[in-house]
Each structure stands twice: as structure tokens, then as C-alpha cells.
Amino acid sequence: MRVICWKTTWLSIQTMELFDNLMDSLSGQSYGVIDSFLTSEEINGLVINLRKRHAAGSFKEAGIGQGSGQHIQVLVRGDQILWLEEFSVVEIEQVYYKKINALIQSLNQSCYLGLKDFEFHYALYPIGAFYKRHLDRFKTDSHRKISVVCYLNEDWQATDGGELVIYLPNKPPVKISPVGGRLVCFEADILEHEVLPATHERLSLTGWLKTY
Ligand code: OGA
Ligand code: MN
């Protein structure tokens, strides 16, 4: 297990503001969005890596559930995934991990969440694939505190579909377009959500911030 180090990370004022807004939103309504969490170059680097690994056949159909209870069910979810190494040697993945570490440090300092670890996978939704309404936290795994989805779709248009729909208690659902560089965080054990089908391949880095 990787334990988040506590050495000070210097953040720009702009980044601190983005993180502050995200934390306000997370504590107020259990979800938050940061646009442009990644630069175009970072998106590009991650997409190149994703495509290379996908072409090499490293992606697997995503399953539902955990361990031996896991089964593939395309009627529920149609994405293909590849887990990132915990201690990745891929430079662009290290850049991403660094940003996530900074986010975790901010969340721990302001919200006392006690986050200690994270896990991420690449996800590729082929055209028309979806993920039906669900909750992320497994019954057998209560360590996933915050779900984090970062989109890698440059030039995504509103008409391309593929929205993440978040179901809020006593409010209309929120639809979020998977625009490149956008980061969405939500409380893993509280908010049900779904992924709508898209007219293009839909790419993301999806993961969880965990208590251990
Ligand atoms: C998931 C998920 C949301 C998205 O992988 O569990 O809900 O927008 N992803 O990709
Ligand atoms: Mn989910």
C-alpha cells in the first residue's frame, strides 16, 4: 500500500482556489467538478499511453463486483479497463499521480478525510457503451471514500453524449459532459450515478481515493 506523504506541495494560488471550490462543493452537495485539471499536453500523453496499451491487448472487459463474485455483464456496463500500476514508472502517469497527491493533501487538510491511498484505471467506452445506474462502493470494501473521474476526450461536443449522470437526493439529476481535462469527484458511498452511451469512444482515468 502506498501511504500519501505529507511533505508540503507548493500549489499555485489558482490551483488552491480550484481545490477550495471543489471541497466546498463536495461538502455541500457530495460532488464537485474541476475543469482543466489536466493540460492538453497531459491529456495527449495519457491518451497516447492508453492507446498503446489498448492496441497491445492489455485492456479487459470491466466486471461487476469483486473477486470470485466478479462477472462480466455488458447489459450493466460496456467499458474496457486497465488498472495503473501502484508505483507507475510511466512518466505521464507519475505526473497524474502527483496532481492527485496534491488534491489528496488538500482534502485531508480541510476535510479531515484521512485519505491514505488511491487506485486508478483507464477506461474506454466503445461507441454506444454505457454503465447503468450504480453505487461505486462495494459491500465488502468500505475503503473507497471519494470516486474520481478524469476525462481524456479532446474536442468533445455536447451532441456526442456520454454524460455522467449523478443522482442527487431530492434534486433533479445532474448531467456532466466528459470534456477532456475535466475532473469529477463524488462521495463513493452516497451518490448513485450512471454513464450514458456516446457517439464516439469515451476515454477516462477513473479511480478512488481510499482510507487505506
Ligand atoms: C465507474 C463510473 C463514471 C464515468 O467507472 O464506476 O461510474 O463518468 N464512471 O466514467
Ligand atoms: Mn461508478
Task: Describe the protein's topology.
Elements lengths: L12 H17 L1 E4 L5 H16 L4 E2 L1 E2 L6 E2 L7 E4 L7 H21 L5 E9 L5 E4 L9 E8 L12 E4 L6 E3 L6 E5 L4 E4 L6 E9 L2
The structure holds N-oxalylglycine and manganese (II) ion (MN).
InterPro entries: HIF_prolyl_hydroxylases (IPR051559), Oxoglu/Fe-dep_dioxygenase_dom (IPR005123), Pro_4_hyd_alph (IPR006620), Pro_4_hyd_alph_FE2OG_OXY (IPR044862)
GO molecular function: ferrous iron binding; L-ascorbic acid binding; peptidyl-proline dioxygenase activity
Cofactor: L-ascorbate
Summarize the structure.
The protein is of the alpha+beta class.
What does this structure look like?
The protein is α+β, with helices and mostly antiparallel strands and 212 residues long. It is built from 3 helices and 13 strands, in the order αβαββββαββββββββ. The strands form 3 sheets. Strands 1-11-8-13-6-5-2 form a 7-stranded antiparallel sheet. The model has no long low-confidence stretch (mean pLDDT 91). The structure holds N-oxalylglycine and manganese (II) ion. The site of manganese (II) ion has 4 residues, from loops. InterPro entries: HIF_prolyl_hydroxylases, Oxoglu/Fe-dep_dioxygenase_dom, Pro_4_hyd_alph, Pro_4_hyd_alph_FE2OG_OXY.
- Please give the radius of gyration in angstroms: 16 Å
Which CATH class applies here?
A: Mainly Beta
* Strand order in the largest sheet: 1-11-8-13-6-5-2
Compute the number of structural domains: 1
Strand content: 25-35%
Structural class designation: alpha+beta
Find the CATH superfamily. Answer: q2cbj1_9rhob like domain
Pfam families: 2OG-FeII_Oxy_3
GO molecular function, one term: L-ascorbic acid binding
GO biological process, one term: cellular response to hypoxia
InterPro entries: HIF_prolyl_hydroxylases, Oxoglu/Fe-dep_dioxygenase_dom, Pro_4_hyd_alph, Pro_4_hyd_alph_FE2OG_OXY
